[in-house]
Each structure stands twice: as C-alpha cells, then as structure tokens.
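Researcher: I'd like a structural prediction for the single chain below. Treat it as a standalone chain; there are no partners to consider.
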Amino acid sequence: MRQYRGIRISNGKEIKGWPYKNSSGKCFIIPTVEKGRAMPLFIEVHPHTVGQSTGLKDTIGGEIYEGDMVKVGKFREPVKVFWDESKAAFYTSTLHGNIGPRLLCDLACEIHNIVEIIGSIHDKEKQ
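Model: Treating it as a single chain, here is the predicted structure.
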C-alpha cells in the first residue's frame, strides 16, 4: 500500500503516513514512524489535502503525490497530478484545462522520466 500525505490542521505542516476518516468525517494521518522519534497516533489533517503517493519519483528522487504540481520535460506549463476514480489511474492536466488529461506514467515514460516537482495545489495552506 502506498503512503498518503496531508496538511496538519494544528500547524499547517505536511505529514505522511496512512489515512483514517472517523464517523464524524474528520480526517487523520497515522504517521510513518521514524527511528527514535515519538509521534502521536492520529494527526488531524485538512480533508481536501489528503493525497496518495503515485509510486513514481521525480528526477531528484522526490515522491510524486496526488495534488503535486509537476513540470514535465520541455512543456512550459506545469501540470497537476490527480486520481481518476473511473479509470483507477493517476493523470495530469494543466490548471486551466487547456491540455487535456494525460496518464501520468505514460507522460513520464514518453519524455524519459524528466519530471520535476515544483509545488503542490495545497502550498497556500502550508506554513
């Protein structure tokens, strides 16, 4: 199972781990445990910021997540990464929708894995 990430309600920082949604609709991340570091069991996050890892990495080894903004090859306009439930796959599209959805793994392979993470659609919420 791939990790998820979300933005903490308490401090606006990103947290990675496993998602959980309670019966009242609140979203939490159960953090990945780091050696020698105590972590709370459940960290509340903004629900709309929760996104799954695509399993792909950019050119410098950063994990690409749903909600990331990436620059692909020589294309000028950055694209956002999103999950299409009906096709059960990660896709990319421009923020303005002027370049239609493209399958993320096809796009990355076509341009020889030249993908660079340049931000997230949730950057305004991070501190």
